[in-house]
Amino acid sequence: MRWDNLTEGPTGPSALFGADAVVTRTFDTPEFRGITFHEVRARSVLNRVPGASRMPFEWTVNPYRGCSHACVYCFARNTHSYLDLDTGIGFDSQIVVKTNAPELLRRELGAPRWTGAHVAMGTNVDCYQRAEGRYRLMPGIIEALRDRANPFSVLTKGTLILRDLPLLRQAAEVTEVGISVSVGFTGQELWRTVEPGTPSPAARLAAVRALTDAGLECGVLMAPVVPFLGDSPEQLRETVRAVAASGATSVTPLVLHLRPGAREWFMAWLGEHHPHLVGRYERMYAGGSYAPTWYQRQITRQVHELAAAFGIGPGGRGAGRRVLTPERPADPPAGPVPAAPTQLTLL
After folding, report:
1. pLDDT per residue over 89-128, tens digit each?
2. Could you give phi then psi for residue 61, rounded to 5 degrees?
3. What is the pLDDT of residues 234-250, one digit of tens each?
4. DSSP reduced 3-state for 2
5. What angle do CA 320, 255, 343 make, to 5 degrees?
6. Mean pLDDT of all residues in the chain?
7. CA distance 48 to 67
8. Alpha-carbon distance 259 to 257, whole Å?
9. How far apart are CA 45 and CA 252, in angstroms?
């Protein structure tokens, strides 16, 4: 989102947005108590991913900034600092809503310069967070993508995605649709403290089952795997077992990474809830935002082996998508066909 047209002064949210460009609302209902919504009209909603990014896609749509899921590790926290908003409590409770996102996306998809590239959603903050229940931006966004037969994917922790199941099925009839649900662990105590605003892991896996039962393949991003709190062999096995039972087509582990903004908030949480682990985390993440390569490979190997044991996969870059393509005769195999390996996929 570009804020140039909203700037009336050098500093502060009010100057940044402009008095006539933002409407600030609060709702005195249990699900929104303590949350402030800043309704803005964006200039652009298709965002190009920087070339240096590790992401396997080039374009994203993010109808919200900030997220009431309040995940203490969320890597997107630092984006709130671009708006001079707090990356801690402010990220959880000051939600920017791009109210014109559906109409803007429809216009941008119809521009002559747009080539129909894959669009990823939910990769920054969750597009199915609680605010979506009130603002209902995703139906219009999916309709715009469907009507242009534009491929897209959704990554979410929100069970609200089931509300849009009919639209997702319609879109899958004309284009590639990828769906992934994020479930890093199944432990109730860990969930309640690190992801306090999200649906429970069991509810998310039930959503996976509902999506797959409706004919939409759905993968699970097993993220984050939390070192020393959710990475024991027993915990990994239980999580992969539950993912397999949900009917997920793939499972992809992603170890916790702590970027600036998220790192400070997570370490403060760790010091309060698990002070004995602070030193271990400081050593593990001494080299930067990511856990050591050997640790990431160890977790990936363990999850890969468990996925194979529980029969998840095979998947691939398109796992979690229904793709309609013209049929053609299959080439006869030259010899015995080896069993396909279990693939781990992000989207």
Report:
1. 999 999 999 999 999 999 999 999 999 999 999 999 999 9
2. -130, 125
3. 999 999 999 999 999 99
4. coil
5. 35
6. 85
7. 21
8. 6
9. 28
Residue pLDDT, tens place only, 276-315: 999 999 999 999 999 999 999 999 999 999 999 999 964 4
Cα 4 to chain center, whole Å?
27
Using alpha carbons only, give the angle 302, 177, 345 rounded to the nearest 5 degrees. 15
Residues in the chain: 347
In angstroms, the CA 330 to CA 157 distance is 38
User: Pairing between strand 59-61 and 251-255?
Assistant: unpaired
- Region of residue 121 (phi > 0: left; psi between -120 and 50: alpha; otherwise: beta): beta
Read off the amino acid at residue 308: A
CA 138 to CA 165: how far, in whole Å?
Answer: 11
Which two three-digit tokens encode residue 10? 């050098």
Q: What are 38's two structure tokens?
A: 């800043």
Which range, 1-10, 12-21, 24-33, 136-145, has the best average confidence (pLDDT)?
A: 136-145
Report yes or no: 2 and 48 within 8 Å, Cβ to Cβ.
Answer: no
Contact (CB, 8 A) for 184 and 226: yes
**Could you tell me if 42 and 3 are in contact, meaning their C-beta atoms sit under 8 angstroms apart?**
no
More confident residue, 41 or 21: 41
Q: What order of strands is seen across the sheet that includes strand 152-156?
A: 46-48, 59-61, 119-121, 152-156, 177-182, 219-225, 251-255
**pTM metric for this prediction:** 0.84
> Following DSSP, what letter does each residue of 107-152 receive, concatenated?
HHHTSTT-----EEESSSS-TTSTHHHHH--HHHHHHHHHHTT--E
Stretch 217-221: mean pLDDT, rounded?
96
Q: Which two tokens stand for residue 174?
A: 């004309």
Give the 3-state DSSP-derived string for 30-50, with helices as H, strands as E and coil as C: CCCCCCEEEEECCCCCEEECC
- State the sign of the Cα–Cα–Cα–Cα dihedral 42, 46, 47, 48: negative
User: Is pLDDT of 7 > 50?
Assistant: no
Rounded to whole angstroms, how far apart are CA atoms 97 and 204?
A: 24
Pair of tokens at residue 35: 């949350």
Alpha-carbon distance 167 to 277, whole Å? Answer: 45
Q: Taking the CB of residue 318, how many other CB atoms lie within 10 A of it?
A: 15
